[in-house]
Amino acid sequence: MTKETGLVKQENKNELTVPQELMEDLGGLVNVGKSVVKTPRLKLTSANSDNAISGLSVVGEFACAAYNKNYGKKISIIPIAVNESASLLFSPKDPPANCNPEDYKDGDVVCASHDITGNKAPPRNIDGILCSNCPYGAHFDVWTGDGKVKKAPKCKRSVDVICVETSSPDKPMEINFRKTSWKTGIDIVRGMLNDPSHVYFGSEYLLESDTGKSEGGFKYQFIKREPQSKPLDQKTFDAVVSTASKIAKAKASGNLERESEEYTNDDLPI
Prior knowledge:
The protein is of the alpha+beta class. The chain has helices at residues 20-25, 50-54, 182-193, 234-252, and strands at residues 43-44, 62-64, 69-72, 74-89, 109-113, 155-165, 172-178, 203-213, 219-223, 228-231. The protein has one domain (39-169, 177-267). Strands 4, 5, 6, 7, 8, 9 and 10 form a seven-stranded antiparallel sheet that branches. Strands 1-2-3 form a three-stranded antiparallel sheet, with no helix packed on it. The chain starts with 19 loop residues before the first helix and ends in an 18-residue tail after the last helix.
């Protein structure tokens, strides 16, 4: 039996037994910036997306470029953490106010806020400006127009879910639910808050893609509402706990970074 006094205890058969004094000296061997260990993005592929262009996936399939993985048109995820954000994308057809069109191309992020909950402080953009004083006149909560004709804000809300694919509990990803998929993200949040296990990550959810058509006839991809869910078995739950713990610690210390997004406005229909 392995003694625990001078050795790091083995948690499973795949772990190595290392002398405790050696482990204490190894802490500085990996010294990198937060940007190097960003959480990869799980994306629903659209016609103009980077995953479609690279050939990793086709329209309507879920894929993660960082893991070089195509999950098909259905994927079972276990949500672990959730955040609400908002982003303003440049559109040459309808550019934001006070924005020089020569400085941006279609789909560029003009402005963003990584936390719009207002739980700790009033929402601010990445430059520290209060969202209520939006310099582009595009506050995520302000609709414009009179009477029955209301125009949605150009800055779009997003439910950002850090999750794992059920069969890969050690590989966290972030998937963003915005525009036509925003309500699906809300469905998942409600499920997490009311999970019968009383743990946010106690269930898995089956995401399915679908195709919609705008009034102008443009086809777009979205994630179906009310995804099916089922409780995790104990073995799967135990495997997710380690990943959830790492995410919680990174979030608490401000070291939780995400991959940047690449998309065009056509990828994100209203």
